[in-house]
């Protein structure tokens, strides 16, 4: 059968070849660059899903090769003359000397102290910042900083890239981070995740309540509260993590 000659012009669009009436009057790049159109879609959930994906991609990319790390939490309001500021700095320095990177929320107070300890020790000082209504900016001691729009994306990073948590006295933000880790450990979503509460005077009352009232009322299983290790001793914090790794 004779081959039908067909030299009509064609348009290649990625893997697709178009001819005749299927040919577009402009290129994909022209449509991308020349037009604006309505902008409402920027404020819709499908677009947010892409932004959320982008945050995960950026976070995973920045932290994938971090090596062993500990996340330190504590009040954004801890002042440099508060003994807990120095404690946070010391804990970070000592963990850094054992080869751990230090991850914090990148803010002021106990976070700044921990980043300072890690940076001064020559280790990896990570800050996972969060967009807040009153912009604070990252503390000056963060050497590797990632800023997040979404709390839940940021919280994934704290858990995914750390071997455990050290929690210094703090407010709602600190409690949120502590109880997220406890819930993940209790439900088996993370295995072997040491959580140290530093400062027995601050945490003792909460731990007593968790045992006497929450566990006493059957709302947790006996033994759940033992996931929390309370101490006032920096050496003990360090040996708790080092022993876990052995
Ligand atoms: C409110 C103040 C500063 C807020 N800046 C913060 N920057 C980064 N991360 C923060 C900030 N505030 C809270 N966080 C996170 O929660 C934890 C501390 O919260 P708390 O309520 O102070 O305990 C901390 O670990 C961060 O991850 C200045 O006054």
TrEMBL record:
<dbReference type="InterPro" id="IPR031100">
    <property type="entry name" value="LOG_fam"/>
</dbReference>
<keyword id="KW-0378">Hydrolase</keyword>
<dbReference type="GO" id="GO:0102682">
    <property type="term" value="F:cytokinin riboside 5'-monophosphate phosphoribohydrolase activity"/>
</dbReference>
<comment type="similarity">
    <text>Belongs to the LOG family.</text>
</comment>
<feature type="compositionally biased region" description="Polar residues">
    <location>
        <begin position="1"/>
        <end position="13"/>
    </location>
</feature>
<protein>
    <recommendedName>
        <fullName>Cytokinin riboside 5'-monophosphate phosphoribohydrolase</fullName>
        <ecNumber>3.2.2.n1</ecNumber>
    </recommendedName>
</protein>
<feature type="region of interest" description="Disordered">
    <location>
        <begin position="1"/>
        <end position="38"/>
    </location>
</feature>
<dbReference type="GO" id="GO:0005829">
    <property type="term" value="C:cytosol"/>
</dbReference>
<dbReference type="Pfam" id="PF03641">
    <property type="entry name" value="Lysine_decarbox"/>
</dbReference>
<dbReference type="GO" id="GO:0009691">
    <property type="term" value="P:cytokinin biosynthetic process"/>
</dbReference>
<keyword id="KW-0203">Cytokinin biosynthesis</keyword>
<dbReference type="InterPro" id="IPR005269">
    <property type="entry name" value="LOG"/>
</dbReference>
<dbReference type="InterPro" id="IPR052341">
    <property type="entry name" value="LOG_family_nucleotidases"/>
</dbReference>
């Amino acid at each position: 059968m004779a081959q039908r000659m067909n030299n009509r012009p064609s348009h290649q669009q990625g893997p697709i070849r178009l001819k005749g009436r299927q040919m577009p009057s402009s290129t994909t790049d022209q449509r991308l660059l020349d037009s604006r159109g309505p902008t409402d879609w920027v404020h819709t959930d499908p677009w947010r899903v892409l932004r959320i994906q982008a945050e995960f991609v950026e976070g995973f990319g920045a932290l994938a090769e971090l090596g062993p790390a500990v996340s330190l939490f504590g009040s954004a309001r801890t002042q440099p003359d508060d003994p807990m500021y120095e404690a946070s700095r010391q804990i970070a320095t000592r963990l850094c000397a054992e080869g751990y990177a230090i991850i914090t929320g990148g803010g002021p107070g106990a976070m700044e102290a921990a980043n300072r300890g890690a940076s001064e020790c020559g280790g990896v000082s990570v800050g996972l910042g969060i967009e807040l209504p009153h912009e604070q900016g990252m503390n000056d001691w963060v050497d590797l900083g990632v800023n997040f729009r979404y709390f839940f994306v940021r919280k994934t990073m704290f858990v995914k890239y750390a071997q455990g948590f050290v929690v210094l006295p703090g407010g709602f933000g600190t409690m949120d981070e502590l109880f997220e880790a406890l819930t993940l450990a209790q439900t088996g979503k993370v295995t072997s995740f040491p959580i140290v509460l530093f400062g027995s005077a601050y945490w003792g009352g909460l731990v007593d309540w968790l045992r006497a009232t929450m566990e006493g009322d059957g709302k947790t299983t006996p033994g759940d509260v033992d996931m929390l290790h309370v101490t006032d001793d920096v050496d003990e914090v360090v040996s708790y993590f080092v022993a876990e790794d052995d």
